[in-house]
Amino acid sequence: MKQIRSIGGQELREMFAAATGWLEKSSAEIDALNVFPVPDGDTGTNMLLTMRSTIEEAYRAPDHSASAVAYAMAHGALMGARGNSGVILSQILRGLAQGFAEKESFTAADLASALQESSTMAYEGISNPVEGTMLTVIKDVAAAVQTERAGNGRDLIAAMETAVNAAGESVANTPKLLDVLREAGVVDAGGQGLHTILDGALRYLRGEMEQMRFRKPQIIVTDMHATKLPQMIAADEVPYGYCTEFLLKGEKLDAAKIRKKLEKKGESLIVVGDDFAARIHIHTLEPGDVIAYATGLGTLHQVSVRNMDEQHQDYLEMQKDRGPAVDTAIVTVVAGDGLADVFTSLGVTTIVPGGQTMNPSTKDLLQAVEEVASDKAIILPNNKNIVATANQVQSFTEKRIEVVPSKTVPQGVAALLAFDYEADLESNIQIMARAMAAVKTIEICRAVRSAKLGDLKIKKRQPIGFLDGDLVAVGESGLEVLNKMLSKLNLNKIEVITIYYGADTKSAEAEQVASDIRSQYPQLQIEVVRGGQPHYNYIISIE
Amino acid sequence: MAVEIVTDSLSDITPDFAKELGITTVPVYVRFGEEVFRDRIEMNTEQFYYRLVHDAAFPTTTQPSPGDFFDVFNKLAKKTDEVLVITLSSKLSGTYQSALQAKNMMEDRCRIEIIDSLQVIMGLGLIVIGAVEKARQGGTLDELADWVRWAMTRMHSAMFFDTLKYLAKGGRIGRAQSFLGSMLSVKPILTLKDGEVSPLTRVRSRAAGKDYLYNFVAGFPRIERLAVEHATTPGEASELIERLGAIYPKDKIYQSTVSPVIGTYVGPHVLSVSLLEAE
User: Fold this and answer.
1) pTM of the predicted model, to two decimals?
2) Cβ contacts (< 8 Å) between B218 and chain A: which residues?
3) What is the ipTM of this complex?
4) Residue numbers of the domain that contains B142
5) CATH code of the domain in which B200 resides
6) Per the structure, how many domains does chain B have?
7) How many residue contacts between A and B have a Cβ separation below 8 Å?
8) Nearest chain A Cα distance for residue B154, angstroms
9) What pLDDT digit, counting tens, does each position of B160-218 carry?
10) HEC assignment per residue over chain B
């Protein structure tokens, strides 16, 4: 096995250049891990830009000692740091530079103690360190490499392997430490970026430069699934005030003093740097004060002030608007879990379980409209036997109740979809009624007894078909009934057919029905959805 | 000296049309991976959609820099002392901010009025066209600015999307968030409300969507200006214009295609109407 005892400045630079190339390959995927679209977003890109500035500066080092190169890198990182993640990364590099101070080359032991410095510096740069982020990852890496060193390892490759493994485990663990990550089902993006950089460095040390050209870094996945929709979780992670960022250049700058001074000015404070340059990042309500204070200490560069409340406001708006409208609730009656999901996904406020043979009472409906936050509600009964009950509700409540008398599920869906967010209640009732009238419904179930209706002779258990509530067809199979019915309809004006199959119907059979219709009417868009409704094998919407 | 008018490329006023109008459009940038293009100048709509579909990289966009506006202002300051800048909604882009910063850099070398239109695409375009007309009639900067603010309150638009995928990915979905996650395939119709993307309604077919757009326009009894635009479906746009001919003179309907930067957020197959309601 290849072993490396120590490396100098040139290799240090090459190692991080390789790591930067490695990071570049997955920066987009790391961006995608971001939980919120806040101004600090794009973690992968920010880390990559920070690393590029780091490497550029590394070439300007006065000599080839590990110490000189590491200092140049730290300086480059500080100057080019972007976003929160970039700032923390620059602190990590600064820790390395301190660890390698006055060293011509460095060993595994030097790396272990330098990583300790990195960890300390990273935590020091942030006024409110949060676990489950890059900070935790660098801390875990430093601890693991230190422990490995205690076992007397002298090989830099082995030390770096330990670092990469520790980083991987730590990244995978971030969702356990940070609720927002767990809820979104992702690992911390900054931690992932750090893992990729270390992994790139390890591959360089192993001499795998050639292979790296054809491979891609791995993104660590969490085995936890998102427990909430990402757009729903911004509530307690409140961005606030202005995200204020700048580079302060001066003489004898005292980061600790600046930090102490600014701590009370806001949140997410980061002050990092050396005597001559400090990068400052703060979320504050008074960016003017922060900037005025800093101008007294030196000159300001790369100043950026962004309003975070605007974005937060957008979040609140979004959450408020997840229902169909702010002031109108829509209550509907549905049987079947699949159909309930369909109505929920389309933004219905409340679902009252019920339908054919299990009609809800006026009291059930009344309770539902009383529970919604809005003082206006639209009821979609979705069954002809429930319309009358729904019409009763108004006389029992102070709230304004309108019934859009949908007699079938497809009518209810069509009415719900047509809801116009900018229209008032009266117009919406008309719009929804019109949309409801434009859809045709086919329902297919099995006859519960033998019967003779008009010229239809029906045997018990035979499939029968209803068109908009009227019994019009009987046949040997559901498909046959459906075909009879479709052949009588004028399909020229039809574009979409949606098939909701029932609880007693197999999905394979429904797909078969769909592909049969598709081959007969190739111009139509056919969708198959599990409705899970009782009694009806198929409820079919024709629009 | 006449007032010079400046807007950005998201007004969907093409470079040729801008020349005809005698205005300056500042391009927004669109980026595919490492490649950066100036909207409509270095990349046109067809090239853009080809890459949107065939490129692995998802495009992103960047506002013009303050420097871009500064250059324009410097150039214009040589021939006029009054400049009116009408930008797209500041809720959708930082273009307005860039223009403001550039104005500060100009330090009174000429009078510059910057208006956040709270609109985008032809909603913005129609306002700009109206402002040009007022300028040609000899309107002063203040008169033009007043007219623009009035027009902003009477601008209505409806955009028919094939999918919300691109809008959500690009982080511009705004209040139309509630339309995500539908279990049925639905096509959203959105508008711009207070500068933000907001839901109007949903339809299940393209025919229904086109009907909605027609009825939307028909719902305004008095229309001063009307525009129809599309991304990749010129046939549908002409068909809609043909139909709208029943309620508004066909030859007066502005027709445009959405720019690459807009394409980043709306995806293919988008069809949109914008109208300025008369008093």
Assistant:
1) 0.60
2) none
3) 0.81
4) 4-28+63-153
5) 3.30.1180.10
6) 2
7) 80
8) 15
9) 998 888 887 777 777 777 787 778 888 999 999 999 899 999 999 888 999 999 999 99
10) CCCEEEEEHHHCCCHHHHHHHCCEEECCEEEECCEEEEECCCECHHHHHHHHHHCCCCCEEECCCHHHHHHHHHHHHCCCCEEEEEECCCCCCCHHHHHHHHHHHHCCCCEEEEEECCCCHHHHHHHHHHHHHHHHCCCCHHHHHHHHHHHHHCEEEEEECCCCHHHHHCCCCHHHHHHCCCCCCCEEEEEEECCEEEEEEEECCHHHHHHHHHHHHHCCCCEEEEEEEECCCHHHHHHHHHHHCCCCCHHHCEEEECCHHHHHHHCCCCEEEEEEECC
